[in-house]
Design a protein that fits this description.
The complex is a heterodimer. Chain A is of the alpha+beta class. Chain A contains eleven helices and eleven strands. Chain B has a domain of 193 residues: Rossmann fold. The chains are: A alpha+beta, B alpha/beta. The structure holds zinc ion. The site of zinc ion (ZN) has 6 residues of chain B, from loops.
Chain lengths: 311, 358
Amino acid sequence: MHKAVAAALARAPERISLATLGSRKGVAVILGYPESGKGPAWVAKVARTPEAVLELAKEHQALLAIAPWAAELGIPRVLDWQCEAGSACLLTSAVPGRLVRITFRLASGPGGGAQPLNTALAWLERFRQTIPAESCGSAGAARESAIAALHPLQQECGAVAGLRSLLESAPEFAAAPSHGDFWYGNLRFEGKRIGVFDWSGLAARSPLHDIFKLMTSCCFEYGGAVKTPPDVAAFGSIWFSPAPLSRFFQEKIRTLSGGEAELRTAFYHFLAGSIRIAGPSTRGIWYKIASILERRGFPPPGSSLPAGIWT
Amino acid sequence: MADYPRWLEKLNLGCPCGRDIPLSGGVYLCGCGRKAGAWDGAKAVIGSPIPYWGEIPQDQMRRLLEESQREGWRAAVRSLLDPVLCEYVTTPDRAAFQEILPLRPGALVLDVGAGMGGIAAELARNYRVVAQEGVAERADFIALRAAQEGLSENLAVVNGDVNSVGFGPGQFDAAIVSGVLEWVGLFDTSKGVTEVQVDFLRRLRGFLKPGGLIYVGIENRIGWAQLRGVPDHSGIPYTSLLPRFLATWICRRSRNYRSSHNATYRTYTYTHGGFLKLFARAGLRARSTHISVRGYDYPTELVPLVQEAIVTYTLEHLNQPGGLKDRLLNGLRLALAKPWFWRTFGADFVFVLEAAGA
Ligand SMILES: [Zn+2]
């Protein structure tokens, strides 16, 4: 047990039961449930490898940067941070509320179940208006680091080189604060309020970035079969087909983007980020998507592509 | 020739004559003249090693040791073991329970039946660990892996059978008993299985400092894996569910029986209540109880038997709400997200035990 977790247990006025939720990128997630009360009181993230410590330090920095707006936006508060050679622990308040799976079939659109989706999109709007983009770093730096991180992946997939040169030559866009991993699994709903966690990806990016991420996480293939996003065909159908759900998103996106050129840049920046961050098993799917789009000259989302090219 | 960590000298074995035998120098001698064991350059050898048994045949194990010496243990494991076993031996996940185990940095931990050292090596990054392992080849592998990982300062290997390695009282902060308690009945057939298990736990309790803990990872006798027909320790499905006499009768007659040196059913597991009774007989009580959803071998997702925690876990692991079947299944899982159901039918248990008087 990390000593920061032990200290949190010792401080608590009542008995706390610990639950562990596995680890992501080498960071173990531990929830502290008080005997009374609904839901966990706090969340501890423990890193025990140098890479995981780096990842956790990023999240700690991000939470400090946006701390002034934490209460307003349902962002965890930092309760403790301990970092020494080889290990680190970040203790934060828990985000209240429940997980809501926002999943839709492309063919039916969001329909009556659009409420949590709208709540999430409204939160993004508020987030953008509340937090100054400067507190999340510069967009130029985010772009540079994305381009640099793509470099080693060129060996594995030819299309990555094309993606990289596209980003290098793309016009600058107006930067906004961006969560970086804004999918429904990182949101908790309590009525119309939501809380958002996992902040290690906070940066200044295109205002479209988080919407793209949310879209990919909640769309799945039409028909009976359930697919895990991002499945190649499901993915393609969201961005490049006139399916009802795609139209719903595309309208949202049009209101935010400053025109087709910006939409295209933002989309390929998102695609590059997904390739960069995806684990080895899902990276193959993104490579395939990038390759198909490269052969089409990197079209902007919303273009119609021939049916069946994704399968 | 590798040296042992200095702190090992402060540990004692207990001699039947009542004196302490310090684990220092090359030979462990008691004042009464009895020789308890010796340091062989890589490990402390106590008593005579038990006959080889393990995940792989003995000749393959010897090849693994040779290649580990030449190529490094990770490369050797990758080239000689199948992917499942390779993952089992190398993953840090097997020690993930350390996040719920209340130990100070540098605490002294005894890993009982350390196997290929997956847990011991991981714990040695934060604690001082004595890895006890009965099979000589496996003990050598642990020592080699610790040396190559630069962990020898924090990890000492003791090669000796679980029942013959007797430490002096009050020395350890914790003992790790992961996938071991169910097997101890095989190695002592002189008395009833439950008696062997109680004695084993009682002995371990004696090794602990005041406030010391025993971590136990083990199957639920009637867990959902057992009900689904996953093979029991006997190698035959459903034997844990049967009355013991019936399980014994079946094992005597089965040709699929897993362990050759055991002609009867001696790998007892228990229900939640049965475990608590067993622990109480050994003077122990559960300080915390978790269900290890991925099994005790991969204790990365540990759910305490607390309503809120069970509901949260269940909600996060529902199926994507695709068809009617998924929706029904999800509904059922939510309806059963109750401590009584998880306690009764949960997969594997993870207990942290303390002395009942504490
Ligand atoms: Zn003696």
